[in-house]
Amino acid sequence: MWAGMHRDLERILIPAAAIESRVRDLGAQIALDLERVIGGDGTEDDHGELVIVPILTGSLVFVADLVRRLPLKLRLELVGVSSYPGKSMETKGVSIRHELPNILSGKHVLVIDDILDSGHTLDVVTRLIRDQKPASLRTCVLLRKPGKSTLPVRPDYVGFDIPDEFVVGYGLDYDGYYRNFPEIATLKPEAR
């Protein structure tokens, strides 16, 4: 079924079943933590509003699966960030392509990103959100490369720790391709 893409892939790091299981567990943990803070029934007695801020485009698939595991009243506000343009396999710095919404003051905010690599993307986005004075701010990443971040960025929720390798699939891309592959994989050198 994925024969065209499999030719380009070196090896599968995280199979689809493991991703599905971990997303389910993350959803349960996040829901439990946030229900304590904001309330969960959408009544006037709720302590605040939950706003999920996905960092596009890499987190798109992860966010779609994760929010369906959160039985909370929430809104989505997107931010577009680019740090691996085109065929780059190393970060080229953070460029905000779609500005953050300016409605985050007093809200409980959960920022969701695909991968914590250098830490620059999450650092920039969370600093901009903190400037708006949210009621609380949490972060969640699908993947983290331990020891790679040069900044003191500590996500509240982590799906998987992975080795320092360039990966694709489940929303992560190389030159815009492979986002739809349902597993996390490395690319063969000749495919880069």
Q: How is the secondary structure organized here?
A:
Blueprint: H1 3-6, E1 9-14, H2 16-38, E2 50-56, H3 60-67, E3 74-76, E4 79-82, E5 95-98, E6 108-116, H4 120-130, E7 136-144, E8 157-161, E9 167-168, E10 184-187
Parallel strand pairs: 2-3, 2-4, 2-6, 6-7, 7-8
Antiparallel strand pairs: 1-10, 4-5, 9-10
Helix pairs in contact: 2-3
Plain-language structure description:
By secondary structure, the chain is α/β, with parallel strands linked by helices. It has one domain: Rossmann fold, CATH 3.40.50.2020. The chain is 24% helix and 28% strand. It has helices spanning 3-6, 16-38, 60-67, 120-130; strands at 9-14, 50-56, 74-76, 79-82, 95-98, 108-116, 136-144, 157-161, 167-168, 184-187. The strands form two sheets. Strands 2, 3, 4, 5, 6, 7 and 8 form a seven-stranded mixed β-sheet that branches. Strands 1-10-9 form a three-stranded antiparallel β-sheet, with helices on one face. Helix 2 crosses helix 3 (60-67). The chain is globular, with a radius of gyration of 17 Å. Mean pLDDT is 87; it is low at 42-46.
The helix count comes to: 4
CATH architectural arrangement: 3-Layer(aba) Sandwich
- Quote the distance from N terminus to C terminus: 22 Å
Which fold does the CATH topology refer to? Rossmann fold
Instruction: Look at the structure and give the CATH class.
Output: Alpha Beta
> Are there runs of 5+ residues with pLDDT below 50, and where?
42-46
Q: Average the pLDDT over all residues and give the rounded result.
A: 87
Return the string of H and E elements: HEHEHEEEEHEEEE
Overall body shape: globular
Proportion of strand residues: 25-35%
Number of domains: 1
Q: Could you tell me the radius of gyration in angstroms?
A: 17 Å
The count of strands amounts to 10
Percent in helix: 10-25%
Largest sheet: 7 strands, mixed
Structural class: alpha/beta
